[in-house]
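hey can u check if this looks right to u? its 291 residues, i copy pasted from the old doc so theres a chance i mangled smth
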Amino acid sequence: MAGAPIAFAGSPIDRADHIRTDPAALGNLMNWRARVLNLDGLLPEFDDEGRLLWHTLADVGEDTELVFLGLLDDKAHFAPVPQEGASGPAMPRAWQAMQMLQPDDLALYGGARSLVDWHARHRFCANCGSPTAIAKGGWQRNCGNCGAQHFPRTDPVTIMLVEHEDRLLLGRQPRFPPRMYSALAGFVEPGETIEEAVAREVQEEAGITVRDVRYLASQPWPFPSQLMIGCTSVADSPELEIDRTELDDARWFTREELEDARRAGPDGNETLIFPQKFAIAHRLITWWLDR
C-alpha cells in the first residue's frame, strides 16, 4: 500500500534497546541535553510551530517516573508517566492532535502515549497485588514482593474490508457521529490466526461468511495500545444479520457511493462520511477504490 506513511507509524527515534538494559549508560544520558516530552496527562503539548513540545529534566518533578523513548539527534528522549491512565476512547483533543501533528511527531507521540498509559494503569502486580517499580528504562515493571516481571502489551485487532460484487461492507458503532461508517474490526482472541479472527468477527457482527482473507497493512493505534491488522476478504452472499449490540448499522456501499464520499471531504455526503485520513480504514478503502 504505497503512499504517505500510515498515521502513528514511521517513528524517527532509535529505541536503543542496548541502553535500556544498561543502568549506567542510561544514567549517563540523563543530563542537561536530555529531552522530556511535555504532556498534559496523556495529551500532547505544542510549541509555537505546532510541533511536539519538549522540556528538560530540570523541569520534571523528582518523584515523576520517566520512560526512556530512545535516541534522536544524539539526545536521549523521555516521557513522563501520568498519575492516571486512559479510561475510554480518544477524547476530542486527541483527535485534534492527530490532525495537527506532522507524521514524525505523531509517531513519536503515539509510541510514548501507549507506553506511559500502560505504566499509569499497571502500578500494581497482577500476580500478588504489590506495588511495582519501573525497570529497563520503562520497558518493564518489576514486583519487589514476588519477583514477577511485567511488560507493556500490544493488543492485536483485525480491521477488514469485505467485498461482494464490487461493493464494500462497512459498519457504524454507536459512538460514531451520524453518517460515519468504517471497516469492521475486532480483537484477535487467544488461539486464533489473523484469518480466523477476520472470519469470526465478520460473522459475529454482520452474519456474513468470508473467504480469501489477505493481509494488506498494519497500524499502531495508541488508544490505548492496539496493532490494527488491515485485511481484505470476499463474501459469497450479501445477506446481512447485524448484531445490534456491536453495531448500530452495517450496509453495502457501491464504488460510486464511496468515491462520492471521498470527494466530499471530511463532512462527507448525505449518506456517508469517509473515514478520517489518520485511520487505517481510510487507507484500506482508498486502496480498494484505486487498485
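The longest strand covers residues 210-221.
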